[in-house]
Specification:
The chain has helices at residues 16-20, 28-50, 84-91, 189-200; strands at 67-77, 113-117, 122-127, 139-148, 151-158. By secondary structure, it is α+β, with helices and mostly antiparallel strands. It comes from Haemonchus placei.
C-alpha cells in the first residue's frame, strides 16, 4: 500500500557554498525572520488593550520621553555567562578585581540586565519587566518611554496573540496520529496507560 509520502527535506540541506561560511553565521537572521512573522500578531495584541493609544515606532525614531509601542527581540545579558576567555582566565588564575568565590556558585548576578533589539537599534530595558519573565530570543511588543538614548522604560509587555489554528481533520480530510510520551497523569505508569486510552477513545 502506497503512503503518498514525499520527501521535501532537500531545501534544508546545505550546499557546498553554504557550508563554507556556516560557522560565521549569527542568530540575527533568525530573529529578524521571527520578528517579521510575529509583528502582526503583536500589533493585534497591543491594539486590543491600548486602542488608539498605540503608536508603533522603531527605536531610532523615538523622541526622548515619548511614549510609544516598539516591537523587537529581548536578550538577557548575563555577566557570569560561561565563555572560553573566562575558562582560560580561571585556568591561568587570572581573576577579575571584583571576583567573589561565593558569587560564583550561581550564574545569576545583580549585574545582569535585559536588552531589546528591533531592526536597527539596541537599548537597555528598565521598568516593569523582569529577568525571570523572559528568555533570550523572545519576540515581544513593549509599551513605554525612552528615558535615555540607550534606555527604554517598560510599562507593559505584549506577547503575540495565539497562532491561527488549522481546522480539525474530518472523515473527508483524513485522521491524525499523535505520539505521546512521558505523561504522568495518575502517578502510576500502569494506570496512566488505561487512563490515557479512555481519554483518547
Amino acid at each position: 500500500m502506497e503512503s503518498g509520502y514525499t520527501n521535501r527535506s532537500k531545501k534544508f540541506l546545505l550546499t557546498l557554498d553554504e557550508k563554507k561560511d556556516a560557522f560565521e553565521r549569527q542568530y540575527n537572521q533568525v530573529y529578524v525572520s521571527r520578528l517579521n512573522l510575529l509583528k502582526a500578531r503583536i500589533m493585534d495584541a497591543g491594539q486590543k488593550e491600548l486602542g488608539k493609544k498605540l503608536v508603533y515606532k522603531q527605536l531610532e525614531d523615538l523622541d526622548m520621553h515619548e511614549k510609544a509601542f516598539v516591537i523587537g527581540s529581548i536578550e538577557k545579558r548575563i555577566s557570569k555567562r560561561p565563555g572560553v576567555l573566562k575558562e582560560i582566565a580561571e585556568e591561568e588564575n587570572v581573576l577579575p578585581e571584583d571576583y567573589d568565590p561565593d558569587e560564583m556558585m550561581s550564574l545569576v548576578s545583580n549585574k545582569d540586565f535585559l536588552e531589546f533589539e528591533d531592526e536597527k537599534q539596541i537599548v537597555k530595558l528598565e521598568g516593569k519587566i523582569s529577568m525571570d519573565e523572559v528568555a533570550t530570543g523572545c519576540t515581544a511588543g513593549l509599551y513605554g518611554t525612552q528615558v535615555k538614548s540607550d534606555v527604554f522604560e517598560v510599562e507593559k509587555v505584549f506577547w503575540p496573540t495565539p497562532c491561527p489554528q488549522r481546522p480539525w481533520p474530518s472523515n473527508t480530510t483524513g485522521g491524525v496520529i499523535a505520539f505521546l510520551s512521558g505523561l504522568e497523569l495518575t502517578g502510576d505508569a500502569v494506570n496512566d496507560v488505561g487512563y490515557l486510552s479512555l481519554a483518547i477513545f
